């Protein structure tokens, strides 16, 4: 685990302590056993190799609540055993920490840290900010973000964000990519249905080995509630980028849109975004255009179906090293056996098309059957914070 993750946890604990205030500690434990079939372990165009993976995933989460703050800490290792390629058997580690603190009646602070150490492609394709993957490697991903929201007495809300991301790949070639982000936002509630926003974002991409890159975004946004269950959001503006190595500059459009719908206990989300990300598999800043669709709906009191799909294009902004399209499709269905246990079946299809070299195209089919159990202690662990320190 990175030092930044440990530091984040320590800072959250310090923020959480307030003498004389009562706290509620809620422990949650979970256990998942799954079997997965993957028909392209190494993301190859030809000579594809398949295997059956047995995965055991215990997890634990602690939530600490008070009148003015909430702290969450979760850890979940994945023990992956490969039936044929036993040398690929590994343990993936996932850590998450979040703290939310009411500094005053109008100001709120949130700090989050996410850590992932894994070589499973299923863990990495869910990270939409990484760009297309070209090979199987062990990745270490760490993201730290802080947010301060301030609400004036009227309809204006100010939001400041600072984020740090670190991607490290095991092996030769690219070893590390660091990203620093600073974001400012001012929102004005025009009415109960509509909100106008102004955004500015500054990003530095620190590549190793390679050149640094900088980008600035200035956008305007609107959020409008069309009906009681249907919301539309849109934003657009200019994106300015500069490469440190050759001093080249580029200006373009940055923005996107989001349409969300709630129906009963289900939901649907359709979004589009165009921006620049850090392409961690090539060490290149990439201009991306992505469209995502997510659906989730209960079919009955016990059955729940969900679906997600996305298509994105990724292209280098300074050369022709990367020009790739990627498509992902993930339907799943879950059945509730008991209030604490469910069984789920999911399928994932991933395909990429490299417009520069067809030999780098690949597709992956993955099917997973999992049995999951979870338990929450609820309000049973309520006691003053000093007692927690003594235990």
Look at the structure and give the mean pLDDT.
85
Shape: globular
**How many separate structural domains?**
1
> Structural class of the helices, strands and pairings?
mainly beta
What would you call the quaternary organization?
A: single chain
Main pleated-sheet profile: 18 strands, antiparallel, barrel
* Uncertain stretches: 379-391
Number of strands: 19
Distance between the termini: 25 Å
Question: How much beta, percentage-wise?
Answer: over 45%
Class, according to the CATH hierarchy?
Mainly Beta
Count of alpha and pi helical runs = 3
- CATH topology category name: Porin
The SSE order reads HEEEEEHEEEEEEEEEEEEEEH
Compute the CA-based radius of gyration: 22 Å
Helix percent band:
under 10%
What CATH architecture label applies? Beta Barrel
Keywords: Signal
Signal peptide: 1-22
Features:
66% strand; globular; 391 residues; mainly beta; Porin; single chain; 6% helix; disordered C terminus; 3 helices; 18-stranded antiparallel β-barrel
How does this structure look, described?
The protein has 391 residues and is mainly β. The protein has a single domain, classed as Porin. Helices cover 6% and strands 66% of the residues. It contains 3 helices and 19 strands. It has an 18-stranded antiparallel barrel. The two termini are 25 Å apart. The relative contact order is 0.13. The C terminus is likely disordered.
């Amino acid at each position: 685990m990175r030092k930044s993750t440990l530091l984040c946890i320590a800072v959250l604990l310090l923020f959480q302590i307030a003498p004389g205030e009562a706290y509620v500690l809620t422990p949650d434990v979970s256990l998942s056993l799954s079997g997965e079939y993957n028909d392209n372990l190494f993301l190859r165009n030809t000579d594809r190799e398949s295997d059956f993976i047995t995965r055991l995933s215990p997890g634990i989460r602690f939530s600490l609540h008070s009148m003015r703050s909430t702290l969450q800490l979760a850890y979940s290792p994945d023990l992956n055993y490969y039936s044929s390629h036993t040398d690929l058997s590994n343990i993936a580690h996932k850590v998450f920490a979040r703290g939310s603190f009411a500094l005053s009646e109008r100001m709120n602070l949130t700090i989050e840290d996410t850590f992932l150490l894994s070589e499973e492609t299923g863990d990495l394709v869910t990270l939409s900010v990484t760009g297309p993957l070209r090979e199987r490697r062990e990745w270490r991903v760490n993201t730290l973000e802080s947010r301060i929201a301030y609400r004036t007495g009227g309809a204006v809300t100010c939001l400041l964000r600072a984020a740090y991301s670190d991607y490290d790949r095991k092996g030769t070639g690219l070893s590390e990519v660091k990203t620093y982000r600073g974001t400012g936002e001012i929102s004005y509630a025009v009415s109960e249905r509509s909100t106008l926003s102004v955004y500015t974002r500054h990003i530095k991409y620190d590549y190793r080995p390679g050149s640094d890159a900088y980008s600035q975004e200035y956008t305007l946004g609107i959020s409008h509630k069309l009906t009681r269950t249907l919301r539309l959001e849109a934003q657009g503006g200019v994106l300015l980028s500069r490469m440190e190595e050759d001093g080249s500059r580029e200006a373009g459009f940055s923005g996107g849109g989001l349409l969300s719908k709630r129906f009963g206990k289900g939901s649907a989300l359709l979004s589009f975004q165009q921006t620049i990300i850090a392409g961690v598999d090539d060490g290149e800043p990439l201009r991306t255009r992505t469209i995502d669709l997510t659906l989730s709906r209960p079919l009955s009191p016990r059955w729940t179906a969900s679906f997600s799909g996305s298509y994105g294009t990724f292209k280098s902004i300074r050369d022709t090293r990367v020009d790739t399209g990627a498509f992902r499709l993930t339907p799943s269905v879950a059945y509730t056996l008991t209030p604490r246990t469910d069984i789920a079946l999911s399928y994932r299809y991933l395909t990429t098309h490299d417009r520069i070299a067809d030999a780098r195209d690949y597709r992956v089919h993955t099917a997973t059957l999992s049995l999951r159990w979870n338990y929450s202690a609820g309000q049973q662990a309520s006691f003053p914070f000093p007692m927690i320190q003594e235990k």
